[in-house]
């Protein structure tokens, strides 16, 4: 049953408009209200890199920086990409002074973040075969394999291959290009 605003349905019902959207009908009316909630348990890979990253608990610092640099819309788009995402613990290793300097310079912040993004979908199997990739800033990052784990610029991958609709997210234990990096 499809329903939209203004469609009459039985009182006290819940109507599924799409498999991921539920419309709640108020008890005191027979008209569908505009209150819509989406299902948080969507299948893997159905959300963009930006949406996946924003819901993950260990990447709040990176999410905030991406929002400050106005790069989150790019991660929510359809263009294929791979994000090498430092965890909050990785950012905690950076001095407050270095973080403040990074945040104070919008060009430096944007360049820093673009060095974590590759304009292609790179799955785990490809990372194990590739030696380098070119970032969205135009610099090259190196891939390696140490102690049984893949690495990016000598930073161990701690959360491999989170699938998103437009690519992959790899959690890394260090911040590429900052003090505190291996």
In short:
Helices cover 27% and strands 27% of the residues.
Structural overview:
- It is a single chain.
- The chain has 182 residues and is of the alpha+beta class.
- The chain has two domains: 1-41, no CATH class; 49-172, FAS1 domain.
- The chain is 27% helix and 27% strand.
- The protein has seven helices and ten strands.
- The protein has helices at 49-55, 60-68, 72-76, 88-92, 96-104, 106-114, 124-129; strands at 14-18, 21-24, 36-38, 81-86, 117-118, 132-134, 140-146, 149-152, 155-164, 167-172.
- Residues 1-42 have low confidence and may be disordered.
Main features:
27% helix; 10 strands; 3-stranded antiparallel β-sheet; single chain; 182 residues; globular; 2 domains; 7 helices; 7-stranded mixed β-sheet; alpha+beta; disordered N terminus
């Amino acid at each position: 049953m499809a329903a939209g605003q203004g469609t009459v349905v039985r009182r006290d019902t819940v109507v599924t408009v799409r498999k991921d959207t539920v419309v709640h009908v108020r008890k005191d009316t027979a008209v569908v209200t505009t209150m819509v909630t989406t299902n948080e348990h969507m299948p893997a890979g159905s959300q963009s890199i930006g949406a996946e990253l924003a819901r993950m608990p260990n990447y709040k610092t990176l999410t905030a920086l991406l929002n400050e640099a106005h790069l989150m819309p790019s991660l929510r788009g359809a263009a294929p990409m791979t994000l090498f995402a430092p965890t909050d613990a990785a950012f905690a290793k950076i001095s407050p002074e270095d973080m403040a300097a990074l945040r104070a310079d919008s060009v430096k912040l944007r360049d820093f973040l673009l060095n974590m993004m590759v304009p292609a979908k790179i799955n785990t199997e490809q990372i194990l075969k590739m030696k380098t990739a070119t970032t969205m800033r135009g610099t090259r990052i190196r891939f390696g394999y140490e102690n049984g784990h893949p690495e990016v610029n000598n930073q161990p991958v701690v959360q491999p291959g989170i699938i998103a609709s437009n690519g992959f997210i790899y959690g890394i234990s260090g911040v590429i290009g900052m003090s505190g990096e291996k």
